[in-house]
Amino acid sequence: MIIGIPKEIKNHEYRVGVVPSGVRALVEAGAKVVVEKSAGIGSNIADREYEEAGAKILQSAEEVYNSSEMIIKVKEPLSAEYPFLREGLILYTYLHLASSRELTEELIKRKVSAIGYETIQLENGSLPLLLPMSEIAGKLSIQVGASFLEKEHGGRGILLGGVPGVLPGKVTIIGGGTAGINAAKVACGMGADVTILDIRQEKMAYIDDIFGARIKTLMSNSHNIEISLSEADLVVGAVLIPGKKAPVVIPKKLISSMKKGSVFVDIAVDQGGCAETTRPTTHSNPVFVEEGVTHYCVTNMPAAVACTSTYALTNVTIPYAVKIAVMGFKEAVKSDSALGLGVNTFAGNITCRGVAESFSMNYTAVENLL
After folding, report:
1. Domain identity same for 194 and 139
2. One of 96, 153, 283, 295 is an active-site residue; which one?
3. How many whole angstroms separate alpha carbon 255 and alpha carbon 240?
4. Which parts of 232-305 fold into alpha helices (H)?
5. Residues 150, 224: one domain?
6. What 3-state class would DSSP assign to 343?
7. In the chain, is it the N or the C terminus that has fewer CB atoms within a 10 Å radius of its CB?
8. How far apart are the first and last CA of the chain?
9. Number of structural domains, the chain?
């Protein structure tokens, strides 16, 4: 199998689909790998390193796509990349289709075999390919939130950790999954007053066991969200339903009840966002103010720390990529139920139930099409 690694073109997307060690693993498995020139430069990876690992460097994205049977990326294709998509091409990347009907329809029309990292799911419900980026986004959410709380950035002028004799800032995290827990780790490390809201009693019990009195937990319901937001200096939205559009748990009226100059960071923006006021932003223009609250809704947060993110991502994506390269798409999917859940579109059909439900479109189980 010929596998292509194009350069990412999303705004300030410095990650790359595979690092040289991943290329070596694919080559050792019998695949041929082509990499677009300078694809790794944003992650401090030179073309020479890819060549030493066994890849061939091509000059353009068009060459990479046309030469390859499988494309490994980081982010979903943008409109400029649509013409490169074709029937039977295997696309292996973060897709987040529930937030983009346009891309969903393009993948269906072009009959792309599209595998979304974020919907590969193990029997225990965990999302192994989403895990490292959720960890990074969670930690970043507190860093960027703390920065935008500074007065010079339009914030309330709050230091999250406070100082002796002055109360620390209050952080509310909605969602106690991987992103939420990692946000809590950093917020606690800064000395903030932290509250996590979640709908799962067992998750709150786990958080209480891990953090003890350093974090308060609350059942996530409209009443508790309303009270918590009115008191918070920094709110982090970390709500996720695999494959589906994120539920809107923060209506506009609750944003308007927050303190002026407070900050809202929506990690769920990739799946549409968990607040009524959320709209996607970029690293070039990361924030906007609505109802007096600074909103940070960057759709590729981990790109800010590309060197860490790229290597962490390759660690979890390569095993599945090797399986596809060795067995072929159909046999790999048949043999691995987790990988099967990752298939979002195949042969002109939506094969991810969550995506189909988000757009009220027809769903076909991938096993019925193989």
Report:
1. yes
2. 96
3. 20
4. 252-256
5. yes
6. strand
7. C
8. 19
9. 2
Domain boundary among 258, 276, 304: 304
16's tokens: 């790359």
Distance of CA 364 to CAs 93, 106, 217, 338, 342, Å?
A: 21, 17, 39, 17, 13
Same domain assignment for residues 182 and 290: yes
CB 34 within 8 A of CB 66: no
CATH number at residue 347: 3.40.50.720
179 membership: H or E segment, kind and range: helix 178-190
Q: Which of 4, 110, 31 is nearest to 328 (CA)?
A: 31
Q: What residues pair up with 265 in beta bridges, in sequence order?
A: 236, 296
Looking at 254, 276, 304, the residue that finishes a domain is 304
What pLDDT tens digit does each residue of the chain (370 aa) get?
999 999 999 999 999 999 999 999 999 999 999 999 999 999 999 999 999 999 999 999 999 999 999 999 999 999 999 999 999 999 999 999 998 999 999 999 999 999 999 999 999 989 999 999 999 999 999 999 999 999 999 999 999 999 999 999 999 999 999 999 999 999 999 999 999 999 999 999 999 999 988 999 999 999 999 999 999 999 999 998 888 889 999 999 999 999 999 999 999 999 999 999 999 999 999 999 999 999 999 999 999 999 999 999 999 999 999 999 999 999 999 999 999 999 999 999 999 999 999 999 999 999 999 8
Place of tokens 């073109």: 9
Residues 162 and 291 in one domain: yes
Contacts of 39 (CB under 8 A, 6+ apart): 5, 6, 7, 8, 16, 17, 50
Residues 43 and 185 in one domain: no
Same domain, 300 and 310: no
What domain range is 42 assigned to?
A: 2-127+306-368
